[in-house]
Amino acid sequence: MTSRSTRLATSAAKHSPSRLPLCTYPSASPISPAPHVSTFYHPSRRRNQSSWAAAVSAAQTIFNHAPDSNAPISVDPFRTVAREMKFLTKNIRQLLGSGHPTLDTVAKYYTQSEGKYVRPMLVLLMSRATALTPKLRRETSTYSVNRPITSSEILTDDNPSAPDHSLTSIAHDAAYNQEESDILPSQRRLAEITELIHTASLLHDDVIDHSQSRRSAPSANIEFGNKMAVLAGDFLLGRASVALARLRDPEVTELLATVIANLVEGEFMQLKNTARDERNPVWTEDTVSYYLQKTYLKSASLISKSCRAAAILGQNTPEVVEAAYLYGKNLGLAFQLVDDMLDYTISGEELGKPAGADLELGLATAPLLFAWKDNKSLGRLVGRKFSGEGDVQRAREIVSESTGLEQTRALAQEYVDKAIQAISGFPESDAKDGLIEMCTKVMKRRK
After folding, report:
1. Roughly what angle, to the nearest 10 degrees, separates helices 391-401 and 404-422?
2. Which residues, 6 or more positions from 427, have their beta carbon under 8 angstroms from its beta carbon?
3. Is residue 311 part of a domain?
4. From CA 24, how far away is CA 137, in angstroms rounded?
5. Which of 134, 167, 297, 393 can bridge 266 by disulfide, Cβ–Cβ 3.0-4.6 Å?
6. Of all helices (H) and strands (E), which one includes residue 218?
């Protein structure tokens, strides 16, 4: 059987016949602090008005021309990690098993219709892309990621109908044979954990937002009621925490636990469209900065910290770990900015969830914030959260007549470019190409 080290060497030779390229990374401290508002958006500091206008003009040209669906794709990111992705849903469903039949059904509800699985795919791609990067040996656990830390008798306690706490046996899945893959079992489990956390956030968000549908089906709160949907989300977070503990890596546990806190912090920030939540707010650059900070906490934190965790589990150097984090942070912000655009431009049928929901919920997202800069009348609508008669329709008209969508795309493209730059020093590989292709797909996606 081919050893992992032999396959890594073979892969390196495939992508660089002479020797591995030198790895260069953005200068940064080994442990990056949480992003500050000022790191997100300050056009006046980053570019003059003419260069910003040029970027918007270029984005408008792209925006007004649909991407060529027949254009060749250099690398299919899914195919790069297809073997690992094949078992993702099955393993997640096993992680979610409950002895209570109703809870079991509700907890697994969103796993019945396959999602995009963007987050676990990024974790797997990052794990594979960093397999060839410099390593920093650190103490790691020799235990299986399925092995309980506490005895099974204590864990099951007065819940004898609970599933086997050994969870799923990785040894039974060929894709989890460490000798046949350059992605570690702990990194695969991390991919599953990120999807659990993401799905839990969907369950909670759908209750908060009174959502009617998700993934082209009735949302869990409609199908089972708010209480069961909330409890199922809590259950997912509990199971994610158990699986996270069994990775036996305190730094990774800290990162993913912080993500859960960030999701809540971002949701609280979303309750207000501006930092002071005025009745008649005035547009400032801080308005966009506040929005982007909220976006990072609510959407990009999971991607950035899970990419960082994947590199940590792979025993990579601080420079590689930081590069993985910067890639995830910037791609995550771009992903949400594009999502904001789609809420204005794509039908609910194509999205698989109601279109135009943001304004109905009173939320001012990036396209409207950029439009507001040029049309001060939007301030009154933002202040009353589009609750007046005709407010939603009027806001949509103003956005459509402005360059708000084009400016949103321009900013998303900036973040995508930064994501690609962050991993530019990684050795060439299909996985690195897949990470770059994911950036392209984010900018072209329509759902």
Report:
1. 70
2. 12, 15, 16, 20, 21, 23, 132, 133
3. yes
4. 20
5. 297
6. strand 217-218
Rounded to a whole number of angstroms, the distance between the first and last alpha carbons of the chain is 42
User: Which CATH number fits the domain that encloses residue 161?
Assistant: 1.10.600.10
CA distance linking residue 364 with residue 271, whole number of Å: 11
pTM value is: 0.81
Task: State the alpha helices, DSSP H only, in 1-40.
Answer: 4-15
Q: How far apart are CA 405 and CA 401, in angstroms?
A: 10
Is 343 part of any domain? yes
**Nearest C-alpha neighbor of 445 from the set 423, 412, 415:** 412
Domain enclosing residue 370, as ranges: 28-65+81-444
Q: What is the pLDDT of residues 253-302, one digit of tens each?
A: 999 999 999 999 999 999 999 999 999 999 999 999 999 999 999 999 99
Does a structural domain hold residue 375? yes
Task: With respect to residue 416, please indicate whether it lies within any of the assigned structural domains.
Answer: yes
In the three-class reduction of DSSP (H, G, I as helix; E, B as strand; rest coil), residue 407 is classed as helix
Beta-ladder partners of 217: 214
Write the DSSP symbol of residue 86: T
Token pair for residue 305?
Answer: 């910290």
pLDDT in tens, 323-374: 999 999 999 999 999 999 999 988 656 655 555 789 999 999 999 999 999 9
The three-state secondary structure class of 316 is: strand
